[in-house]
Amino acid sequence: MRASHHGVLFLLTALLGGAPACATQGAAGGPRAVYLRDKAAWAQDGMFAPELADCDDLTDDLIDEIEDELDDDYEVIRIPSYHPGVGAHPYVDIEVYQLLGEGGGAFSGQKTMIIRGMMIYQGNTVGTFYARRSKGYGSWSSCDMLEDLYDDLAEDVHDWVLQPTMNARLGE
């Protein structure tokens, strides 16, 4: 989709609190809202270490961490996917692009996760990103190491949602 300059300016204004109340606040003057895909997809063109993908609920846990970070500033509304009727608030979509490393915890070396995402607002893509985090120490299990990566990636996504840009590189 083509990003609209008007849409980007309106979105940034809305996210920073300068837009009309209907764009930034709920009907009762509550917090601004953002739609979040309820489960991260596995990118069709991605690369994955099968032994790491076996960690229970990997994509659910990632989205849970992102929601926890966004909850500080937004009312998060989780939905299955984007559709044209989703226009009242920005929509954030997340995919797991790469999950690399060997199973076996810290003893088997570094684990790396790359996610990519986009923000759609009023039918326009107003921001895209890739975020990368790695961990090679500090936990006994690979799944625990991935949980640490989720935390770091969630903070990266939160900061990007506050000021989305096209083709952003987040993390390390």
How many strands, which pairing sense, and closed or not: the largest β-sheet?
Answer: 7 strands, mixed
Helix share bin: 25-40%
Q: Radius of gyration in whole Å, from Cα?
A: 17 Å
Oligomerization state: single chain
User: Which regions are unreliable across 5 or more consecutive residues at pLDDT < 50?
Assistant: 1-30
Mean pLDDT: 76
- For the secondary structure, the number of strands is 7
Which structural class best describes the helix and strand composition? alpha/beta
Portion in beta strands: 25-35%
Number of helices: 5
Shape: elongated
Span from first to last CA? Answer: 27 Å
H/E topology pattern:
HHEEHHEEEEHE
Model description:
By secondary structure, the chain is of the alpha/beta class. Helices cover 31% and strands 32% of the residues. It is built from five helices and seven strands, in the order ααββααββββαβ. The protein has helices at 5-15, 21-24, 50-53, 58-70, 142-162, and strands spanning 33-37, 41-48, 75-79, 91-100, 111-121, 124-135, 168-171. Strands 1, 2, 3, 4, 5, 6 and 7 form a seven-stranded mixed beta sheet that branches. Helix 5 links the parallel strand 6 (124-135) and strand 7 (168-171). The longest helix is centred in the C-terminal third of the chain and has 21 residues, at 142-162. The protein is elongated. Residues 1-30 have low confidence and may be disordered.
